[in-house]
Amino acid sequence: MKHASMIAILDDDEGVRTSLSSLVRSLGHDVCTYASAAAFLADADAGDPDCLITDVQMPGMSGAQLLEALAMAGRRFPVIVMTAFPSDATRQRVLAAGALAYLIKPVDGPTVARCIDAALARGERHDHT
């Protein structure tokens, strides 16, 4: 039996964290939630998730800055970025930093599910090469 994938959800909005974690659990995945990039980075015991869903605009470190910090630390796993304040500059920055997807809030469940499936498929390909 295949183990459940661990999806990390990072958003400073508790409502977003709650609704996304409910959706992700309904898809059969395990979930870990964080209210800030600092909290995610400090949770060394959790290890790297199979996929990270992060907001862009957060107090302290933004989602774009987090992506760049993860890349500099050599931490590689699929990342889905979401924002309620889209801009071409931010989109280009996060995709250049390695984000798998750039989604504009509010995001519907089927879109999130498709992105998670793509992220996990991408992760599996990297594990076996």
Automatic annotation (TrEMBL):
The keyword Phosphoprotein applies. It holds the Pfam family Response_reg. Keywords: Phosphoprotein. The modification 4-aspartylphosphate is found at residue 55. Residues 6-120 form the Response regulatory domain. InterPro entries: Bact_response_regulator (IPR050595), CheY-like_superfamily (IPR011006), Sig_transdc_resp-reg_receiver (IPR001789). It comes from the Bacteria. The keyword Phosphoprotein applies. GO terms for biological process: phosphorelay signal transduction system. This is Response regulator. It comes from Lysobacter soli. The lineage of its organism: Bacteria, Pseudomonadati, Pseudomonadota, Gammaproteobacteria, Lysobacterales.
